Amino acid sequence: MRAIPISFPNDFLWGVSTSSHQFEGGNEFNQWKDWERAGRIRCGGGSGVACDWWRNAERDLDLCRDLGLNAIRISLEWSRIEPAFARWNEDALRRYREIIVQAKQRGMRVFVTLHHFTHPRWFEARGGFLDAEAPRLFYHYARQAVRSLGDLVTDWVTFNEPNVYAAFGYLFGEFPPGRVNEMNAALGAYAAMMQAHAAAYDAIHEERPDAKVGMAVHYVVFEPERDDVLDRQLASAYDTLFNRAPLHYLLGEPLPLPFALMAPSVPQAAGKIDFIGLNVYNRLHVRFPLGEKAGPGGIWVPPHLPQGDRGAVAPYGEAYPAVVAAAISTYAALRCPMYVMENGVPDREDRIRPWVLVNSLKELRRMWQLGHDVRGYFHWSLVDNFEWSEGWGLRFGLYELDLESGERRARPSAALYRQIIADGGIRRETLEQWGDLQSRGESAAGD
Ligand code: FCB
Question: Residue 115 pairs with which residues in a beta bridge?
Fold first, then answer.
């Protein structure tokens, strides 16, 4: 028998993560389409036909089956389901049923996200999550989704990364509504999404008491650049607000001071979590004073550290597999099942993706062995897709997508992931080959 030094439990979930706007193509009714039309995508263009899933998700579901996946995460496009206020589109719901059935027929358990950064134009026009009615509107959407699809789906993710949505939409201006340095609005949107999460949690359980409802948070290791009180305090403020605010809300605790004075409290979110999804990619370095050497917010990435491809104007982040363990040990406080719900790297040439895959899985397995209830790993992502404000510049696929012909070409990481899944773990020779970057004599840093 082949030696598999890093092995995973038999019922472990092996998946990929995707989202509606990044994969479906032809989304016309959400706020991101307007953002694209306003020319806000760094490499130009827009989501276009994306990976063409609305017409033909089945082609990529075949690839998932070939990889041996037993799980997939998709998201529903609220703007397709409710293109105008309180008008439900049965055709869209039918297409989602079809996609979910097709995935299940190929052996996958389907996790469904309700909000992955996009929502209907009419909802944005009311103020998005800053509209006082937002949690109630989200409740109705969640109820409609679970009424239509709840016989096929047990695992529901209410929100993808409310922390990224709030920071990029209201502090950095990189996502719609494109506001900059508006801390009150950012904290308000963040808290409103937690309220909407609580409302959707209730809606789903009212319809399907045995459903499991979670959310996905993005977790970043913030590293003070120097052993200096200001660098440390800045890193710790980012850690509290970005990484830990959802944890405090879900535990029913106030945020630590002084943030409790700035952020609205959400008592109704306490305890409303059946599992947590951890989206883990990067470490970012933090340096005070702001603006000197570092990028916005004092954040930067030292060039000699491992990185995939650079974004159009800034590095994407230091690729950092140890973030997996940091996120798991922090969110273990919820005492619920955990999934690594996104992990990957932008890497057109597949230079360091195998290293990220192998070492992130090693970290996950180490935490599982320590007794943490981590039940699955979802790679971001199957195929190159529309990467938000970076557009088509950053390539996250196990498969390369030819934008002209629509052809998919496997990158070496696809074969590696297939082998790991088939073995239920990582072979010794794979560990030797990909365990550390330096021993490969390769430059870790991107261009
Ligand atoms: C995550 C997003 C996902 C994708 C990856 C690269 O923050 O949830 O949609 O863009 O980053």
Answer: 159
Minimal-distance CA residue to ligand 1 atom 10: 387
Chain mean position to CA 307: 18
Q: Is the CB of 343 under 6 A from ligand 1?
A: no
Q: Which neighbouring-strand residues pair with 111?
A: 73, 155
User: Quick one: which H or E segment has residue 148?
Assistant: helix 134-149
What tokens were used for 325?
A: 């363990």
CA distance 427 to 419: 9
Tokens representing 93?
Answer: 């719901």
72 and 113 in contact (C-beta within 8 Å)?
no
Q: Which atom from ligand 1 is nearest to the alpha carbon of 396?
A: 6
Cα torsion angle, 18, 62, 11, 142, sign? positive
Number of Cβ within 10 Å of residue 279's Cβ equals: 24
DSSP 99-122: HHHHHHHTT-EEEEEEESS--BHH
Encode pLDDT of 289-335 as tens digits. 776 667 778 899 999 999 999 999 999 999 999 999 999 999 999 99
Does residue 24 line the site of ligand 1, with CB under 6 A? no
Convert the pLDDT of each residue in 222-234 to its tens digit.
Answer: 999 999 999 999 9
- Pocket flag, ligand 1, residue 161 (CB < 6 Å): yes
CA 279 to chain centroid: 5
Structure confidence at residue 143 (pLDDT) = 98
Q: Give CA–CA dist 447/308, Å, rounded.
A: 9
CA distance 433 to 365: 18
- Two tokens at 154? 């047990």
For residue 22, report the distance from its CA to the centre of ligand 1, in Å. Answer: 9
For residues 361 and 339, give the distance between their C-alpha atoms in angstroms, rounded to a whole number: 12
> Residue 215 in 3-state DSSP?
strand
- Which of 387, 392, 394, 398 gets mutated to test ligand 1 (max ligand atoms within 8 A of its CB)? 387
